[in-house]
Amino acid sequence: MMSPAGMTKRAAPVLACIGLLVVWQVASLALKNDSFPTAMGAITAIPDILGDKESLVNILASLRRMAMGFGAAVLVSIPLGLLMGRSAAIAAFFNPLLMVIYPVPKAALMPIIMLWLGVGDIAKTLVIFLGVSLPVIYHSFEGAKAVEEKMLWSGAAMGLLPVQRLVRIVLPAALPEILTGCRTGLVLALITMITSEMIARQSGAGNILFNALDMGQYDTVFAMIIIVGAMGICLDAIFERVRARLVRWSEPQFDMPLSFS
Amino acid sequence: MKARQNGRGSNDAPHGCENESLSGRLLARLVPLNLRASGTEDGMTVVSARSSEWVRPVTQQDPASAIIEIDRVSQVFQTSARKDHVALSDISLRIEERAFVSILGPSGCGKSTLLYIVGGFVSPTSGAAKVKGQAIKGPGPDRGPVFQEFALFPWKTVLGNVMYGPRQQGIRAAEAEAQSRALIDMVGLKGYENFYPKELSGGMKQRVALARTLAYHPEVLLMDEPFGALDAHTRTRLQNDLLNIWERDRKTVLFVTHSVDEAVFLSDKVVMMSKSPGRIRQVIDIDLPRPRRRNELLLDPRYQKYVVDIERMFDESDEGGVPA
Ligand SMILES: Nc1ncnc2c1ncn2[C@@H]1O[C@H](COP(=O)(O)OP(=O)(O)OP(=O)(O)O)[C@@H](O)[C@H]1O
Ligand SMILES: [Mg+2]
Questions:
Q1: 20 to 30 A from A182, CA-CA: which of A27, A226, B35, B112?
Q2: B141 touching A, CB under 8 A?
Q3: Considering the domain A41-247 in this protein, what is its CATH number?
């Protein structure tokens, strides 16, 4: 049996989605604008896209690049952030570099990167990598800095060497914070994935979207927006599941509904 | 060394017999004649055995018996206001192997800092600290800290925390687990093996911290108010357990506490510190028979006398020490 409060909590996201679609439908009927299709029109275009083999190949190619960029960024950024958090010298070296890169929209680097690396997978994956890196580095850095000194002392007294302390104490202790960074990184990966494909049209979900836009197929454009949004929600929900498992030991006792998981 | 060890537990033995002349003088001051006369026979023999002539040759024959030597150590901290803050000033202390030494003093007098220096976590601004004759360069498994803040590993269960040290030292998992479970049982946390630290109360965390350090068998235990967060009942139980462990394994214990009773009950020697700057006021040998039984000791006039005298000394320093 579910409590009334629990039911409401479950139903709320669904109600929000339905509400949004209703508002959309009504607004588009009222405006009667070609470039603003009805919600129904957009939704009925979704099966056409997902049923088309070429579109599916494009979307999967996007996801593959995103996974590679995200994975590589996490593998590089976590150790770097942790090192920066524990060593003032390393932090002093990398901080200015990161501060320069930080405010630049990563997709704006796309044209230059394309000049060097072409319009293929490498350039797009690199942009995703850059987009994901900064929040992960930042949160790893903050997490590592906040590790209680006495915890490291305890480890040192047990005979852990500095590298072992970094891997076996700083990493797990900072994990909740690191995963917060990864979650932001995941959303940014999706955003940079689409924008990179907008600039380097060749394949991918962004390619479908912007081609449709050029050709005035607005149903398809909005259907793609829904698909990308749904992908974001699903990825975030999956990530949230994984995260909750990994840091069960640090979760607050009351639960905070942060996502639709 | 031999003589001292054999003598422990019997009543006519000298306890904590370095620092001979000072402790001899102190004791004479702490245990005045009327008490000695009215005390039990033990009391009289203990006192008479404490003449410095009797004790001195023992320590001088065996200078290695000092496991920890702190020589003129000072610690100055830079505060955020860019002023120097003298936390410890000119501390010298010798701690004998297998002795139980308490550090007693008001909050902020540098007790934790002194412990960190011995642990090798902090290097002193000046002076030198040695363990087993070697200058302390850093932490090591020979000195096991139990921190005031517990510092448990929150991602490990109670069992995982306690097993951490033994596993690090290469003990097989099954064996480490068996030992750890026994220790968890000893500190009264049977049934909580799979709890995470966030699911424990403050007192329970403190007991896990104690078990975690005992698990890797350090020669020297550095305990920073390990029973501070416990209720009176658990505190008494753990004091007894600690004494039992100590009487069995004879580790060297450096024990920081606020509680005069606790210091007198547990220790061979009480180091009284005073504040701003942190200094050693007095080192008092506690000549009470071992093994100590709480119910007997509480009724023992010599025990009561130590407690009252130490408390009085603190009161005096409070009156004299507060700047107008
Ligand atoms: N890292 C630090 N930076 C600056 N000052 C410090 C630092 N650590 C300790 N101090 C100062 O040194 C003094 C002694 O601190 P310490 O923690 O050793 O006291 P304590 O005797 O253990 O006190 P308590 O009984 O409250 O635990 C305090 O006045 C404190 O303000
Ligand atoms: Mg302290």
A1: A226
A2: yes
A3: 1.10.3720.10
